Amino acid sequence: MSFYLKRFFVNKSTSLVSGKKLKCPFCEKLYGYETNLRAHIRQRHQGIRVPCPFCSRTFTRNNTVRRHIAREHKAELNLKAFEQSNHSMLDSVPQ
Ligand SMILES: [Zn+2]
Ligand SMILES: [Zn+2]
To answer: Which pTM was predicted?
Structure first.
Protein backbone atom coordinates (compact mmCIF):
# COMPACT_ATOMS: atom_id res chain seq x y z
CA MET A 1 0.00 0.00 0.00
CA SER A 2 2.62 2.47 1.10
CA PHE A 3 4.85 1.23 -1.72
CA TYR A 4 2.32 2.30 -4.31
CA LEU A 5 1.81 5.58 -2.60
CA LYS A 6 5.55 6.23 -2.57
CA ARG A 7 5.85 5.26 -6.22
CA PHE A 8 3.02 7.60 -7.10
CA PHE A 9 4.72 10.53 -5.42
CA VAL A 10 8.10 9.75 -6.96
CA ASN A 11 6.54 9.55 -10.42
CA LYS A 12 4.70 12.76 -9.87
CA SER A 13 7.74 14.67 -8.70
CA THR A 14 10.00 13.39 -11.49
CA SER A 15 7.41 14.26 -14.11
CA LEU A 16 7.29 17.73 -12.60
CA VAL A 17 11.04 18.12 -12.90
CA SER A 18 11.54 16.62 -16.35
CA GLY A 19 8.13 17.47 -17.67
CA LYS A 20 7.10 20.56 -19.54
CA LYS A 21 8.67 23.65 -18.12
CA LEU A 22 7.93 27.13 -19.22
CA LYS A 23 10.95 28.88 -20.66
CA CYS A 24 11.33 32.60 -20.36
CA PRO A 25 11.29 34.10 -23.89
CA PHE A 26 13.92 36.67 -22.87
CA CYS A 27 16.46 34.46 -21.10
CA GLU A 28 17.16 30.79 -20.37
CA LYS A 29 15.25 30.58 -17.10
CA LEU A 30 12.76 27.76 -16.71
CA TYR A 31 9.64 27.87 -14.58
CA GLY A 32 7.19 25.17 -13.59
CA TYR A 33 4.33 27.58 -13.22
CA GLU A 34 3.14 30.31 -15.51
CA THR A 35 2.56 32.68 -12.59
CA ASN A 36 6.21 32.37 -11.57
CA LEU A 37 7.35 32.96 -15.13
CA ARG A 38 5.11 36.00 -15.46
CA ALA A 39 6.44 37.43 -12.20
CA HIS A 40 10.00 36.86 -13.41
CA ILE A 41 9.34 38.56 -16.76
CA ARG A 42 7.74 41.50 -15.01
CA GLN A 43 10.65 41.86 -12.61
CA ARG A 44 13.57 41.12 -14.89
CA HIS A 45 12.48 42.05 -18.40
CA GLN A 46 9.72 44.59 -18.11
CA GLY A 47 9.20 46.92 -15.20
CA ILE A 48 10.66 50.38 -15.21
CA ARG A 49 14.23 50.20 -16.43
CA VAL A 50 16.57 52.95 -15.39
CA PRO A 51 19.22 53.54 -18.08
CA CYS A 52 22.81 54.35 -17.19
CA PRO A 53 23.70 57.75 -18.70
CA PHE A 54 27.25 56.56 -19.44
CA CYS A 55 26.67 53.18 -21.08
CA SER A 56 23.87 51.14 -22.63
CA ARG A 57 23.07 49.15 -19.50
CA THR A 58 19.70 49.41 -17.84
CA PHE A 59 18.76 48.69 -14.25
CA THR A 60 15.60 47.94 -12.36
CA ARG A 61 16.21 50.33 -9.51
CA ASN A 62 17.53 53.83 -9.08
CA ASN A 63 19.86 52.68 -6.31
CA THR A 64 21.37 50.05 -8.58
CA VAL A 65 22.14 52.66 -11.25
CA ARG A 66 23.75 54.94 -8.71
CA ARG A 67 25.82 52.09 -7.34
CA HIS A 68 26.81 51.06 -10.87
CA ILE A 69 27.81 54.63 -11.79
CA ALA A 70 29.76 55.09 -8.57
CA ARG A 71 31.64 51.85 -9.21
CA GLU A 72 32.11 51.85 -12.99
CA HIS A 73 31.90 55.45 -14.12
CA LYS A 74 33.60 57.35 -11.35
CA ALA A 75 35.91 59.15 -13.81
CA GLU A 76 33.13 60.01 -16.24
CA LEU A 77 30.94 61.22 -13.41
CA ASN A 78 33.61 63.63 -12.20
CA LEU A 79 34.29 64.77 -15.76
CA LYS A 80 30.61 65.34 -16.45
CA ALA A 81 30.14 67.31 -13.27
CA PHE A 82 33.20 69.37 -14.20
CA GLU A 83 31.92 70.00 -17.75
CA GLN A 84 28.47 70.91 -16.49
CA SER A 85 29.83 73.40 -13.97
CA ASN A 86 32.06 74.84 -16.69
CA HIS A 87 29.15 75.24 -19.09
CA SER A 88 26.96 76.92 -16.54
CA MET A 89 29.82 79.26 -15.71
CA LEU A 90 30.22 80.12 -19.42
CA ASP A 91 26.49 80.62 -19.82
CA SER A 92 26.34 83.05 -16.96
CA VAL A 93 29.21 85.15 -18.33
CA PRO A 94 27.71 88.22 -19.99
CA GLN A 95 28.76 88.84 -23.60
ZN1 LIG B 1 13.93 35.83 -18.16
ZN1 LIG C 1 27.09 52.42 -17.04
So the answer is: 0.40
Cα–Cα distance measured from residue 36 to residue 42, given in angstroms and rounded to the nearest whole number? 10
Residue 50 near residue 61 (C-beta atoms within 8 A): yes
E strand residue ranges, the chain: 22-23, 30-31, 50-51, 58-59
Element (H, E) at 64: helix 62-72
Model confidence at 14: pLDDT above 50: no
Closest ligand to the CA of 44: 1
pLDDT in tens, 58-93: 887 888 999 999 999 999 888 877 777 766 555 555
Q: How many A from CA of 78 to the centre of ligand 2?
A: 14
Rounded to an integer, what distance in angstroms lies between the CA atom of residue 86 and that of residue 82?
6
Instruction: Please give the distance, rounded to the nearest whole angstrom, from the Cα atom of residue 24 to the centre of ligand 2.
Output: 26
